[in-house]
Amino acid sequence: MKTEILKLLKSSQDYISGQELCERLGVSRTAIWKVINQLKEEGYEIEAVRNRGYRLKAAADVITEAELSSQIRGQWAGRTLVCYEETDSTNDRAKRLAEEGCPHGTLVVADCQKAGKGRRGRSWESPRGTSVYMSLVLRPEILPSAASMVTLVAAMAVAEGIEKAAGLSAVIKWPNDVVVNGRKICGILTEMSAEMDCIHYVVVGIGINVGQKEFAGEISKTATSVLIEKGSLVPRSLIVAAVMESFEKYYSLYEKAGDLSLIMDEYNSILANNGKEVRVLASSGDYTGISLGIEKDGELLVKTEDGKVQKVLSGEVSVRGIYGYV
């Protein structure tokens, strides 16, 4: 009921009476009053005027099931929603739910993580009330060797979602970082459970810096947030909803083709290092070359000084700009 009341308040341009809420939802005035007070306690600014009703003056930047459900409008991504005030890792939670049989498109979101994870076992700082921490459960009918492409699909969705929700122009640092003005605003971690010829599930973890005013230490040179770049705060639920909407769009094209051929040109148009010199950090030895963009299977093409074109696999190496992070 809380979700429905929020939706009605957000969609109304004027006051909406308690009687109308009662009739639409089939509940008592006392039940409506209790929910309105709960929303006020969560931080929503709701004006109540006798003989006129209720009006939402300002939404709250909260991560709750009611708030997220009132914003998410896609067909399947995030329609099954699990929210936590605090958890260990949304990826770990999502994997446990996937093992228990949760449906394709289940979204796990937390306001705070105690054991957030990045690539290669790195920790991901996850303070309360500042960022988007979410993990999406997918059950794709693809071979395990093609699962790494999902990370690139997610990066495109985040870049577009940030632009739609916050008005910021974002680019992708292949394969799993989203960048605004040369600094990282989002990281993506994709994990899966699979056998030799089939995937049980894929979990796409997405962390987006939203409300941080500053970053400490070395990370201050490479990280940024929506608040820093925009100069004003954007509710995290808007960003979650926008990313889920974009993810559905790009994922459907990926599913249709079975690879990235239908979105490859768009991906390359927002690839941060496309056409620029990059350093490839590989276990077999580092080398430099010119980034030529991705192929339909998600591999990055790098042309080395001797004219050869190397195919770079996302799980094996890191790519850096010659003069820094990007």
Automatic annotation (TrEMBL):
Family: Belongs to the biotin--protein ligase family.
EC number: 6.3.4.15
Record gene name: birA
One Pfam family it belongs to: BPL_LplA_LipB
Listed name of the protein: Bifunctional ligase/repressor BirA
Keyword Ligase (UniProt): yes
Catalysed conversion reaction: biotin + L-lysyl-[protein] + ATP = N(6)-biotinyl-L-lysyl-[protein] + AMP + diphosphate + H(+)
Example of a GO MF term: transferase activity
Binding site for biotin: 89-91, 113, 184
BP terms from Gene Ontology: protein lipoylation; regulation of DNA-templated transcription
KW Ligase (keyword) present: yes
Function: Acts both as a biotin--[acetyl-CoA-carboxylase] ligase and a repressor.
